[in-house]
Amino acid sequence: MTSAPVDFESIKKTQRAGWETGDYPRVGNTLQIIAELLVEAADVRAGQRVLDVACGQGNAALAAARRFAEATGADYAVNLLEQGRERAAVEHLPVTFVEGDAEQLPFPDGSFDLTVSTVGVMFAPDHQRAADELVRVTAPGGRIALASWTPTGMIGHLFKTVGRWAPPPAGVRPPVLWGTPEHLSALFGERVEWIALNKREYVFRYHSPQHFSEWFRRFYGPITRLSGTLSEEDLERFSEDLAEVARQFNRTDDGTVAGAAEYLEAVGVRRG
């Protein structure tokens, strides 16, 4: 008996509704340093054509533009694109933001010298199709650079916690698989030569575990959306579960949170 095919389009509609709920940039803007480190690891050059895939509010696109690259950001959540445009305008950075699906990017083959994504493309439900698109739009000899949360890190545990309250759709692989060299190898095969695979840590800093929980419930769209479906009693339990993730990875003893979240920084060369 064969299983029914996964309806990726319906899943993406639900995902988009999640990202358009809350105010994700309130979380995403704190991750700017990941994008700065990623474009440096990719050795971005002035004048290069750079695409930030699943760009959200444009962290990596802005980082590339600061280095005088010709930066473009693509995302399917139009509210996040608008915030990216606002950020670029404030910083006087010439970034182009385009509505686009990571699994069907609206660009010709080989359009970019560098294609990047910071904890973005990993959420595309069809991993293989998203990887194929990254390769397609990158010019032969160009680079692909990705920053992805790992399964065993703080955010990997956060996603497991959320999954206990809202199990992912059947047939959809966990996004944190992108944070493993083995999965990247399986997705990209011989098309990409990975020249750097480094585990890094981003430190989430909040007033307290409860503050971490509240911030994600208020602003991290998918969690905000889930929170709105819970009863008062369940919401209290869910809130405590999120706070417990912060406690588990916290490094401080003063009541605040400095939680180290592991991610994989991957840089590869697109073979011709």
Automatic annotation (TrEMBL):
Domain Methyltransferase type: 51-145
One family name in Pfam for this protein: Methyltransf_11
Presence of keyword rRNA-binding: no
CDD domains: AdoMet_MTases
GO molecular function, one term: S-adenosylmethionine-dependent methyltransferase activity
Protein name: Ubiquinone/menaquinone biosynthesis C-methylase UbiE
UniProt-listed GO biological process terms: methylation
PANTHER family assigned to the protein according to its UniProt record, in alphabetical order: 2-METHOXY-6-POLYPRENYL-1,4-BENZOQUINOL METHYLASE, MITOCHONDRIAL, METHYLTRANSFERASE
Source species of the chain: Thermomonospora echinospora
